[in-house]
Amino acid sequence: MRIRIVDAFTDRPFAGNPAGVLLLDSFPDDARLQQVAAEVNLSETAFAHPLPAGGEADWALRWFTPVTEVDMCGHATLATAHVLHTTGAAGGRVRFAARCGVLTTQPRPDGSITMDFPTAPLTEVDVPEGLDAALGAKPLSAHDTGPHIGDLLIELADEATVRGLAPDLRALMRHSDRGIVATAPAADPSCAYDYVSRCFFPLVGIDEDPVTGSAHTALAPFWSRRLGRPALTGLQASSRTGLVHTELRAERTLITGRAVTVIDGDLLA
């Protein structure tokens, strides 16, 4: 099987979020997919195969972390669309059939790719007892992000607090179905981004995800409502960093980013 490693939400190698991408004729059994994802050992590995013409989607798409399958993944979808376009396997808009529904991607003239994802239904909740100690910072608010994502979105006081987080990952596992998304406004409103975030997913085998497209389906409505603008840019302040451009369109969120292939080879086993 041919495998590519693609850095997503960046225009240069060794930044953004790396994803494995395998284009297949059909899906092997789940155990095989999980074995491959564990061997690749990145936040997610995407597996895709073409679907018959005339249906609601063009490709079937699944995503696996090193330990489990997930319902939604942004960066590995971006990486898959990038591979389809750069290899000539697809052109123009691509529709993916996934566990969270049909997702579409559209290449843009500047080389970036826009993804159309469902907007997360945010519900404000009480800050769970003990979360401040686990996170190492005092939350200002907490929001549930709905079943497809399963994260707890935590608002913190400022950008410096988000950047300085060193959470107790084992303790964080008690506070959400998937993980914790910590966010705050940009310290400098005139800089290239409007807000910062960091994402911790120890429950699914990812201590800190470098750049999380799916989390921006919750970050986009959260910050668009607060800042009064539908189009925003988020900086995920992990060690690799990445910029995510979002546009809120009611029940859908457009997520735009770039990607670059860094490894192209064959899986021999």
From TrEMBL:
Family matches, as InterPro entries: Phenazine_PhzF-like
Isomerase recorded as keyword: yes
MF (Gene Ontology): isomerase activity
Keyword hit for RNA-binding: no
Residues annotated as the enzyme's active site: E44
Regions that span the bilayer: none
Alphabetical keyword list: Isomerase
Family named by the database record: Belongs to the PhzF family.
PANTHER family: PHENAZINE BIOSYNTHESIS PROTEIN, PHENAZINE BIOSYNTHESIS-LIKE DOMAIN-CONTAINING PROTEIN
Name the UniProt record assigns to this protein: Oxidoreductase
